[in-house]
Amino acid sequence: MNLENLVRENIKRLTPYSSARKEYSGSARIFLDANENSFGSPLKENYNRYPDPLQTEIKEKVAGWNEIKPSQIFVGNGSDEAIDLLFRIFCRPQIDNIVICPPTYGMYEVSAEINDVEIKRAYLTENFQLNVEAIKKTFDEKSKLLFICSPNNPTGNSFSRDEILDLARCFQGIVVVDEAYIHFSGEKSLTGEIGNFPNLVVLQTFSKAWGLAGLRVGLAFASEEIIKLFNKVKPPYNISQIAQQAIAKAFENRAQVEKIIAEIIDEREKLIEKLNDYSFVTGIYPTDANFVLVKTVDADSVYKFLLDEKIVVRNRNNVELCAGCLRITIGTPVENENLLKALEKFTA
Ligand code: PMP
What we know:
Elements: H1 3-6, H2 9-13, H3 20-23, H4 56-66, E1 73-76, H5 79-90, E2 97-100, H6 107-114, E3 118-121, H7 132-138, E4 143-149, H8 161-170, E5 174-178, E6 200-205, E7 218-221, H9 224-233, H10 241-250, H11 254-275, E8 281-284, E9 291-296, H12 299-308, E10 314-315, E11 325-329, H13 333-344
Parallel strand pairs: 2-3, 2-4, 4-5, 5-6
Antiparallel strand pairs: 1-7, 6-7, 8-9, 9-11, 10-11
Helix pairs in contact: 5-6
Bound molecules: 4'-deoxy-4'-aminopyridoxal-5'-phosphate.
Residues 78-80, 105, 149, 153, 178, 180, 205, 207, 213, 218 line the site of 4'-deoxy-4'-aminopyridoxal-5'-phosphate.
């Protein structure tokens, strides 16, 4: 894999936007460089200054947590921003293509469509495993990104580490491993392999296990060279001051994160056991995530019934290989109890 050959020419040529705060480092007395409002704002908190464009504090904290260097981390406005930037860096519209393994997270397709990039599909097997041979046959010299979501959304299962790494060895483009749900699984993250695989990008997020979806903060881990490309293309101040402060604060209470993860996993197992007793449930797929894919005799009817009960789950009935399936997020004990009570009233 030669990174130089993968990157779009316009991105290689690009002179990135140079923000006022980036051009200056050191200590100063008065800042009159960024056209901010020096007088303040209606809020008592100070948000009148632009935030750190490179999110130094967050990166240091994340680096310590993942045993990785700050220079190997990109912080995005959700991991969705990292997904979009990968297209902009590597995929020439109407020329290149990407490979996805459906059923999987929908944003890979949406980002591809937005960027006018062809989507090639190598479907998972019947029991939701990677079809490694099919994937290898699917990619060609114009395939720039291969997306592997592990644990996978919406199926919930993790993929074999060896198979992912085997694909990373064979694939001449960038392998993007989306680990949005990794903290709910017993599997080890692939972030430790960044140094061994120059074409590996691992995505994680603060939206799931950390319970901070409202802040919109996601992460990409990759070689320094790839992170430099992210930084070149990203909007200058992509993470707000509020989000940066809140993430730094969240690190002070990491024990709480671990505790909640354990509780969610505990609830997940309880919910699965109880759901198994319902006659309209024909199968529950193994899950490593904070949701479970449930096969029913009639997903549309169950979905509508729950809506009438003011309970919203995700109907995956029309998704390839997921006919009859509902994806249910693990709620609090009270929420799950309410769900189960409502389902008791459902008759197919
Ligand atoms: N990847 C996967 C697999 C997801 O399910 C989601 C959110 N549903 C995301 C990424 C996006 O997460 P974020 O909130 O970090 O943009």
